[in-house]
Amino acid sequence: MQEKFYLTTAIDYVNGAPHIGHAYEKILADVIIRHKRQLIDNAFMLTGTDEHGIKIQKTAASKGITPKQLCDENFSKFEQAWKQLEISYDKIIRTTDEEHKKAVKQIFKKLYDNGDIYKHTYTGLYCSGCESFLSPKDLTPDGLCPHHLKKPEEITEENYFFKLSGYKDKLIEYIKSHPDFIVPSFRVNEILNQLENIEDISVSRTKSSVSWAISVPGDDSQSIYVWIDALSNYITAIGYDCENPSELFNKLWPADVQIIGKDIIKFHSIYWTAILMSLGLELPKTILSHGWITIDESKMSKSIGNVISPDTVLKAFNLEHPDAFRYYMASSAQIGRDGNYSDDDFKEKVNADLANNIGNLLNRTLNMLVKYFDGEIKTDFITGADSKMAVLANNTKNLVIEAFNKYEIAEAANYIVSFADSVNKYVTERAPWSLAKEGKTDECAEVLYDVLEAMRHIAVLIYPYCPNIAKDILYQLNQDADFKYTSLIWGGIKAGKLTEKDKIKPVFLRLDSEFAADKKKV
Ligand code: MSP
């Protein structure tokens, strides 16, 4: 069977504009999918928006527009943001799409027919931020929702319930016997602890309390409550149908990785997993939960007024493409750990890694090639696969692949930059300018070839993070834009005229401007 890779992200609520926390997740996802596409042909990325629920209903009412109008308005902001950040998804699903709504009803009915959904009167503590009932054990000592720091509302309703408790033992067994299922593994115990006290969950609300939702099939007085609706997107988007799943579904499911934030790991590793078990579908290979992005070490929040959009960062720094921001977001925090955005860190990191380390290296070397060899590579310049740089390039490639296989995205970036660092050191040690002066032309030529061929490797390796810089490096090296890993064979740069003085341009300019933090507020 042809190898495939199916990646999904969380679908964002559209009751506001995207901020850099949403962007962080989509960038991580995009870096992973671009890396997979370098290796295999059949890699598919799904993202989307979560458009039903009480929050949308309330925000729309407060603006005097319909929920659909609000969704349309905000959906286009997400779409625009992902375009600007060059998120190369294959599909973007909206939970208001007709095919999705139809498939969700079918899924609900199948769960009901399986005996996993029943009706029950319930009194519980509801957090509208989570769109979920919370158990008293989940609350902070002051009785607040730990994620939204708001007091949940006590609600009594007759709702449909999903028999989650019936899956408890199966879920525990599955999680314990599949170490790659929950990544990073430090989250596993937290999930196992939550499973110890798991109760059945409400999967509908009365229509009178939530009207902006998909109706329960055969019971118009009830709305399907957001999590069944939202979670199902991962299969409805690729054509799941209980009786007759699409070819795409058969090809892609189960997902290889489902990327989500740490706040919604319970919904994915417990609720979603049990729903899939009930539907008789295979489980995703990995649920990858990332940490949260803070701004200047504080939680982003509308009330603090520090919510920053990706667009304002790009504009504030006058960035014509998103590479620096993508690189910073994907490389600054270990997966699963919280990350922080600050203007100073951003500037410092991208100046050091992209401008000083990678950019200068290319620039200096191309200039030396022009100065000493008129920009030309001669056949006898070409070094073999046993050269020090060739060996280092190959090792780096293997380290990067391994890191990506473990979803260590920041570490993979680090390997690439360390490689560039070593190439810089090699240039300093071998001092091609002195070799040229001393008349050691052959040696000088070989060093320059080593460095330029190493740069070609760096371009391919850094491509998932910085697609524009990578293209520019290959362009300056007079190479085709081939980013497949099959191109990573030493000796790709062939003999012939490579460059000339006025073709050489910096691939990334240092960010040195000063910015008022206020310019970036959403
Ligand atoms: N709609 C639900 C997800 C349903 S998935 C079937 C939701 N939406 S959200 O808009 O609140 O969040 C979308 C994603 O962005 C989540 O994975 C969430 O963890 C992530 N983030 C939201 N704020 C974030 C940060 N400040 N930092 C990093 N990620 C954050 O939850």
Q: What gross morphology would you assign?
A: elongated
The counted number of beta strands is: 18
CATH superfamily of the domain at 343-521: Isoleucyl-tRNA Synthetase, Domain 1
Low-confidence regions: none
Radius of gyration: 26 Å
- Strand fraction: 15-25%
Q: How many DSSP helices? A: 18
Range of helix content: 40-55%
CATH topology of the domain at 343-521: Isoleucyl-tRNA Synthetase, Domain 1
- Name the bound molecules: 5'-O-[(L-methionyl)-sulphamoyl]adenosine
**Amino- and carboxy-terminal Cα gap:** 47 Å
Largest β-sheet summary: 6 strands, parallel
Label the structural class: alpha/beta
CATH secondary-structure class of the domain at 343-521: Mainly Alpha
Biggest sheet: strands side by side, in what order? 3-2-1-12-13-7
Task: Write down the overall mean pLDDT.
Answer: 94
